[in-house]
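Data availability (excerpt). The following record was deposited with the supplementary files.
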Amino acid sequence: MNLVPLRIPGGWLVIKNTFYDVSPEVVNGRLSPPGVFVQDILSIERRLFDGNAPPELDFVIDLGWLPDEDPNGGYHLTLLRESWEHVIGTIESRDRSVIRDTLERWLELGAAATRPEDLVKALRQR
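Predicted structure:
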């Protein structure tokens, strides 16, 4: 299986990527291929580095299929500011291209933002 091709600009760190370019199929009431449509599919972080201190976690993009391996589920893409207590944006879809396009837009906006507030402001304007 191939991964969904993603344009990831500098400044982002891929923690996990199992976002496969495959459509879900229901076989005997279960999603196939097994283990692909799960809660933890993709995690990408943006960390700020000022040259002195260790890089600080700034933003996290998380992708999962919810409910886990449920034929009636879908992709859930979430943009967080540091933790799950600060959700900035979210989108749900069963369409990989919708998820990919949104993800790449968030990554691009995040790469262009010099301050966390700039990314939050840019997202709210769109």
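Summary of structural features: The helical segments are 96-112, 116-125.
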